[in-house]
Amino acid sequence: MLIKRARGWEIPGSEATPESVFLSRRQLVGGGAAVAGATALGPFPAAAQLADPTFDLYPAKRSDAYKLDREITAERFAADYNNFYEFGSSKTVAAAARALKVRPWTVKVDGLVEKPFEIGIDELIRKMPIEERLYRLRCVEAWAMAVPWTGFAMKAFLELAKPLGSARYLRMETFLDKSVAPGQRQIWYPWPYVEGLTIEEAANELAFLVTGVYGKPLANQFGAPLRLAVPWKYGFKSAKSLVKFTFAEERPKSFWEALTPAEYGFWANVNPAVPHPRWSQATERILGTSEMRPTVIYNGYGEYVAGMYKGMDAAKERLFV
Ligand code: MTE
Description:
Layout: H1 19-30, H2 47-50, H3 75-78, H4 94-97, E1 106-111, E2 117-120, H5 121-127, E3 131-138, E4 143-153, H6 154-161, E5 169-174, E6 194-198, H7 199-203, E7 208-213, E8 216-217, E9 227-229, E10 242-248, H8 255-259, E11 283-286, E12 292-294, H9 302-305, H10 314-317
Parallel strand pairs: 1-10, 4-11
Antiparallel strand pairs: 1-2, 3-4, 4-7, 5-6, 5-10, 7-8, 7-9, 11-12
Bound molecules: ligand MTE.
């Protein structure tokens, strides 16, 4: 394992000006307009992000409850290495993803709820307690990153949705529009992208609905305008660009599970001891570096989540991968 040691001239990430602070200073000085042509990959918000009707909410106050054991991944790496199969199976999907129109955007809540409803994304975001959280993300392909997500606790969303007592699962669905998403023209994939959680998992304090990253609204490749972050599970559970939340009694079948059931299960909790058929899960590569780290069970979030799986037969239930 490589251990990164800061050299004399390097300031540790913890001492560098957080980008969010830098951004708010910039907004004061430049009023934003000067950077209207900036790229989504750089540290400045792109024109689309500046035009976001909720831009004034960023940067949100950072919660100090969620600590990282590593430095925040530089934005230029996180924003240029994405999985978003709707826009292609390579990691460089940022340019293609710009075709997705993220306003107007409606979120539908249905199934086993007191009253199904639809809500515009801006109204939803303004109703919710927005905060910033530092989370790790571990992809099943054995790379990892650490990012400052902005968003709101899924628990707050559940309070708005009011599921009935009979609801046991939450099914989440990504947009479906093959006129903008070339990947969705590939008929061998079971579009739209679907993921699911148990209600207990959705109510766990870590489950987070993400609207922004790096102190500004999400750039499209990250899953604008609304994506999930469940950091104790492999990244494929964190579905992007969500349009529908359905509460149900039956367990939903997720996109990857429908496509390759031998490789992907429903639970997908991170575990270094259970290899995926194609990737050992023992270690992870830190995005943007050559550093390898040992992977930790539940991606290091066991204290929050292990209790939910107590008493379950890990092999029979396929709790991992
Ligand atoms: N959501 C949708 N709709 N489509 C996808 O292809 N890929 C998943 C997940 N959510 C994916 C998705 C996978 S495999 C990972 S690892 C994460 O998004 C990657 O998130 P990132 O691109 O923000 O790093």
